[in-house]
Design goal:
CATH architecture of the largest domain: 3-Layer(aba) Sandwich
CATH superfamily of the largest domain: Flavodoxin domain
Largest sheet: 6 strands, mixed
Number of helices: 8
Structural class: alpha/beta
Radius of gyration: 18 Å
Helix content: 40-55%
Bound molecules: flavin mononucleotide
Strand content: 15-25%
CATH topology of the largest domain: Rossmann fold
Order of helices and strands: EHEEEHHEHEHEHHEH
Oligomer: single chain
Number of strands: 8
Distance between the termini: 24 Å
CATH class of the largest domain: Alpha Beta
Number of domains: 2
Length: 206
């Protein structure tokens, strides 16, 4: 699994920076390929095409999710490249959990209605340096990711002509196209992937 941690914080070397470092290490120890990057509201996010999972989060400041992450949904191409990506969310904040789930997480989730949210967690200040809490979050991501892949592969049938078309795609791109097409078919409720479905998915993804 290739994962990118996209995050924001105003405090360089602060609690979120340290948390993201530990999260990356914990995930890498499971064999995943992990990169991390700080959000910028006007960045080019086309690079996230290369990742299977986007782990996304930030602190809350004055009741708003940190601005470079939140702003990326409005000012950059983040939303475009997140299309149908599997996403895991986290927040770091001082508020009690129910309040954070009710008031802060929706600030991210309202932009992710077409995404599969693998898991979401609000980390209290104490949990940010708690290795067990971080490992549990990583376990939840991996478990949900594997489950999502299994569900997809079990249900979909590739028609012969679609398989032939897939085989003609250079191997470097083939798996990415296969996954994107399966995700599209799953979302549309198709049980069988035909050449027409591949064309539809291609038009949608362009
Ligand atoms: C200026 C400031 C404003 C904050 N506002 C909130 C808030 O409105 N709600 C909340 O739950 N936590 C709030 N917090 C707590 C932070 O979200 C929390 O401490 C977080 O872990 C800080 O991350 P950082 O160390 O990367 O900056 C605030 C913290 C600071 C410093």
């Amino acid at each position: 699994m290739k994962a990118i941690i996209l995050y924001d914080t105003r405090s360089e070397g602060g609690s979120t920076d340290r948390f993201v470092e530990s999260l990356g290490k914990s995930l890498a120890e499971t064999g995943a390929y992990v990169e991390k990057g700080k959000c910028k509201a006007t960045a080019d996010y086309s690079f996230i095409q290369d990742f299977d999972v986007v782990i996304m989060g930030a602190p809350v400041y004055y009741m708003l999710v940190s601005s470079e992450l939140l702003g990326s949904f409005f000012q950059s191409n983040l939303k475009k490249y997140l299309n149908r990506k599997k996403v895991a969310l986290f927040l770091t904040c001082g508020s009690p959990e129910p309040m954070a789930y009710m008031m802060y997480l929706p600030q991210l989730k309202m932009h992710l209605v077409r995404n599969k949210i693998l898991t979401e967690k609000v980390f209290t200040p104490a949990e940010l340096s708690d290795n067990q809490a971080i490992d549990d979050y990583v376990d939840n991501i991996l478990h949900a990711y594997k489950k999502a892949l299994k569900t997809r592969n079990n249900n979909l049938i590739w028609a012969d002509d679609a398989q032939e078309l897939l085989a003609q795609i250079p191997s470097f791109f083939r798996n990415r196209i296969k996954i994107a097409t399966e995700e599209y078919a799953e979302e549309m409720g198709y049980r069988e992937i035909t050449v027409a479905v591949i064309d539809e998915a291609k038009a949608e993804l362009e």
